[in-house]
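Changelog-linked ticket: LARABZUK example.
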Amino acid sequence: MTGVKICGLTAPGQVEAAARAGAAYVGFVFFARSPRNLAADHAAGLALQVPAGICKVALTVDADDAMLEALLAAVPLDMLQLHGRESPERVAQVRARFGLPVMKALGIASAEDVAGVARYEDAADMLLLDAKAPAGAALPGGNGLAFDWRLLAGKRFSRPWMLAGGLTPETVARAVTLTGAPNVDVSSGVESAPGVKDARKVADFVAAARTASGGEPAPCLR
Ligand SMILES: O=C(O)c1ccccc1NCC(=O)[C@H](O)[C@H](O)COP(=O)(O)O
């Protein structure tokens, strides 16, 4: 059964919808330019509402230690998602310093990008293979763009991984079947407007993801 992460939750009803649908992970975005950006005190309230057993992931972009420290002091979190240009060395440093599992997001647009994933396999606990953001895009992720899933067909990684990028309730089963993804991550594809998750789409997405069988879904590694 494919593990599902619903990313970019911004309100209590959205947390409830993700939990009710059966999401294994929920993501909170901490990036000022994002329509899904949360202040720490708001995120703390949402995180406290997440039922036990669902992994609470903080998405940051090239955050420095001070920002991560402040975030972790304010919000009960289970995992850090690094969605910027963090090097393998920076990923390893964050992992060692903050004591939480780290998922590194990597943009994929070509076979070279897929080959480059290997650089992060020792540093990260989990990998998120996302569509590469177009040049000049305001956001490095959450753009609702898909990449050519055939690039991942038959690929194996030594770390648990998630597929992301432009997935929707209509496409997720095919994406899982083509890539063998054990876990999937979605944001725009289950929204009615940027930052507003639609409970019906969230439920349909989780149900559709579960009809396809990828690899063994990853537990929250905390
Ligand atoms: O969602 C954002 O606003 C965001 C901002 C900065 C970096 C990443 C961001 N989102 C990443 C995600 O929500 C997902 O991990 C992934 O990119 C899939 O997004 P989508 O294509 O919208 O389903």
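Closing comment: Example verified and attached. Helices lie at 12-21, 40-49, 65-74, 88-98, 111-116, 172-179, 199-211. DSSP finds seven helices and ten strands in the chain.
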